[in-house]
Amino acid sequence: MAASIRLSPAARSLFDEPLAIAVQGLGPRQQVTLQTSLRDETGELFQASARYQAGDDGQLDLARCPALPGGSFSGLEPMGLLWALQPQKPFWRLVKRDVQSPFLLQLEVFEGHGERPGRLLAQEQHERAFLREGVRRVPVREGRIRATLFLPPGDGPFPGIIDLYGTGGGLPEYRACLLANHGFAVLALAFYSYEDLPKGMKEFHLEYFEEAVNYMLQHTQVKGPGIGLLGHSKGGDLCVSMASFLKGITATALINASVANVGAVLRYKDITIPPLGINLKRVKVGKSGIADIVDVLNNPLEGPDQQSFIPLEKAECCFLFIVGQDDHNWKSEFFALEGSKRLQAHGKEKPEIVCYPGAGHYIEPPFFPMCAASMHLLFGKPVMWGGEPKAHCEAQIDAWQQIQAFFRKHLTGKLSGTSSKL
Questions:
Q1: Can 4-129 and 136-411 be said to share one CATH topology?
Q2: Where is the BAAT/Acyl-CoA thioester hydrolase C-terminal domain (predicted)?
Q3: Which residues are catalytic?
């Protein structure tokens, strides 16, 4: 009997869903190397491999069989061949540009455990998709808004969320559409370096974001009375500013965000919040040439930098802080704790803070491979983002559940996983 790869789901799965991998038809206790590869839309190759030994019956199920030392990971890791994918080009991060097409995953089984792969025993392809059947992708060009709205299948209305990424700019849609697959109406909002929006990060006007909030509040498919905000990195402190000054926001979830305004002047009506000061002398560059920028920002509790602290005590919403404790972009845990102190000092509800040891800055939806270092647009050189691959992967899976549960609770009044029975 020839060896074959068995996948479940067989041909296609959503990117944030687990994929069960097994090999059958091997020899008893046969040693094999499994390899996965995936090309992003620019053609860059990501690969992972792991060494295994089949059981006495010639079967190999990754959910029950630990990987042996010598590959990209070891131990019992059913999804290791996905989360351990690493770019063959240094400092390259896996992102999905066109959510309407899937990533194509190649799986191969080779004989033996050598440094060079042995004979190819079996191969299979699998599509990792981003849009669930029936989810609608609606480009939005209303007034100044440059965005994409994702609406779940069905009649609605649905709990609404605005999703903001960080200093990369452009209009990333992949997190928004994956979230829409779970029943939320999600607006992926561009705020610079996209179409006719400003090219650089000099200053941001909150009126632009207010337009987006009002667009969502007035949309017939969005369930009121308020919406949620989800922001990562620079997108996070923009969400804190939106929650602090704008009406109609009920829940704000922040992934490795700052509670001080960073990188650009923020203006709203007659209010100006300066960016937090930086000191480039605090950049540390190791032997690898990769910069560690974690200490670059000034302390927003001291001197004139206090003016950069966003007055989040004005917010009328609940907060969730997702924190990677090995974030090397900035001190996310410090910001979350200071935000919490500030809220409580003003008699506001204590925010939820979920901390993940071993997680770095780029906490993405589940099964995105960890990006340890990549080019930083503002610094113009590679910087380290932190994280330890296995712990980071586990953090992404848990954070994704935490974020959905938080929005379900505050935007629908339902607790996650519970159905209201009369």
A1: no
A2: 205-412
A3: 233, 327, 361
Q: What is the pLDDT of residues 280-299, one digit of tens each?
A: 999 999 888 899 999 999 99
Angstrom distance (rounded) from CA 190 to CA 196: 11
One CATH from 3.90.79.10, 2.60.120.10, 2.60.40.2240, 3.30.70.100 for 4-129 = 2.60.40.2240
In the sheet where 318-324 sits, what is the strand order?
136-140, 147-151, 185-189, 158-164, 222-232, 249-255, 318-324, 352-356
Six-digit token string for 413: 């009044």
The answer to whether residues 264 and 275 touch, using CB atoms and an 8 Å cutoff, is: yes
Residue with structure tokens 């059958």? 24
Place of tokens 């560059």: 285
pLDDT above 50 (res 420)? no
Q: What is the pLDDT of residues 185-240, one digit of tens each?
A: 999 999 999 999 999 999 999 999 999 999 999 999 999 999 999 999 999 999 99
For the chain, what are the domain ranges? 4-129, 136-411
- CA–CA gap between residue 232 and residue 234 (Å, rounded): 6
Asked if residue 356 lies in contact with residue 397, where contact means CB atoms within 8 angstroms, the answer is no
Q: Is 136-411 a CATH 3.40.50.1820 domain?
A: yes
